[in-house]
Sequence to fold (615 residues):
Amino acid sequence: MTRILLKNKLDECIAAWRSAGFSVLAPVKRNDLSRFEEVERSADMALDLQITERTIKDHFFPQTEPLLRYTIKKHDLDSQEMLPPDIRRVFFGVRPCDASGLAIDDPLFGWDYKDQYWFKRRDNAVIVTIACTTSDDFCMCTSVKLAPDSTKGSDVMLRPLQNGTGWQVEALSDRGTALLDSVSSILQESSETPAPPASVPVKFDVDKAMEWLADPANFESHFWKEISLRCIGCGSCTFLCPTCHCFDIQDEGDTYTGIRRKNWDSCSFTMFTMHTSGHNPRNTQSTRWRQRIMHKFNYYRGKFGVNSCSGCGRCTRQCPVDMGITETLQAISNLQG
Amino acid sequence: MIYSPFPMRVVSKREEAPGVRTLKLEFVRQEDHEFFKASYKTGMFGLYGIFGEGESTFCVASPETRKEYIECTFRQSGRVTTTLANTDAGDIVTFRGPYGNRFPIEEFEGKNLLFIAGGIALPPTRSVIWSCLDQREKYGNVTIVYGARTVADLVYKHELEEWKQRDDVNLVLTVDPGGETPDWQDHVGFVPSILEKVAPSPENTIAVLCGPPIMIKFTLNALGKLGFSESNVYTTLENRMKCGVGKCGRCNVGSVYICKEGPVFTAAEVSAMPQCDL
Fold:
């Protein structure tokens, strides 16, 4: 016997969490764009989507985020931090790849100097993940050694029941346990079996690819130029990536008052590394694409012990010129024969 | 807090060369100054800013032996540096830092020191130079090789004069061919070739090298030819930065974050990095 949540009880659950002070966010499809938004009832949720176009990263590391407010006076200045509001949030219906993405970025925002803007949101969030029982052509979690039912980064795991009436529920953390306890009267004991997780084919041999990437002799390989020739440097792959975390800091305001903001930036952009002198360490699209691949499958691991890719496949799914991590890592695996 | 800068008051401003200025800054708040005094070591950098314009990354040009003020020297080239250049005494600017690692000058004790700098890279070198000259008795011979494009582009001219007068400092000045004036008495030539000509001995000597990427590349070759081992040569890498604290993702070379593990590296460490990404 395990605990289950029936779909027809989901509205009661949402109401209970909301009255306990939580905001509930779930996949929503609106005007052809799918992403996580606050919902009040289950009818607003698009839980049958394979994956939202935007990642839940948007809600932890927003595209633009105020850091501090400043006021300048003659011979004086005042600045106040603008930390995110203390809102407790439930993210319902997260895909395992997106949940993993948060866990992958935690060490980056936490090492040495702790980024409170990230952690205040992380500490106030409960991630309720639904295991995938289906996948599409772009899904590649199994290629990066994760899985359609990976629990990494999740507080609660929901496994869809075979009969389609609801989910088997499992708490994975203290926060998850507390969230389920708050709706224990709505959950039921059941012997219904969960559907098997999706079978996601492995698309490349990541170990082989990592070995090739780790060899300094390949850093200046002609491969990088060929594989990135059609990259237009739009940065979509980085913005839609659940683990890409690069940002810029910009001031918005007039001479006397304004807001300093943290805005998404991308290693795909020419200006990203341009020195004042005009010298640019990564001055071609191929060196910038190499940076992205190396960062994800070599550098990040060297620093934090994990690859910076959770296999969501958005970089390929939404690339305007049909490139992506899958193609590049497949090509690298094949190079070795 | 992580992205909040310290307010700093401009004490004075000095014109070093065309478009190059030094600001002398004092802390507005006592607690910020105490933090700086406890944490600053030569080689570390900061983000200097003006609200409404942004922040720029430069070294702390003043030595760790003089922590009453912060000096920064910069070339006026963009929004932030133009606004900083136009400040007057009494104006408030911002500082975040000190960040990064340092030159381990206590490990240099008892050794000869060779400082090599090019153009606007004298400021970071000057921080180490004064940190050592202020404790002169701890070090052996001190040689400073400094070059700029033209005579006008040499920065800290008053200090160059002071070092020239001292008999415990050997100052070698050079300007690029064509950059000399009719009354120029010193060398004419690029820093790497002048260095080979002066040929300082690598014996018991630490070299500290700062300059633009292209100069560093050729000077490291010259030092190699002179017999300096890569572990006795220190240099700084100065990539574009925004956060300064290992988050924003732009300054890395390989898995090394320049803002955290740098900006100071030995030549051996630099050699181990992907060269075409420098």
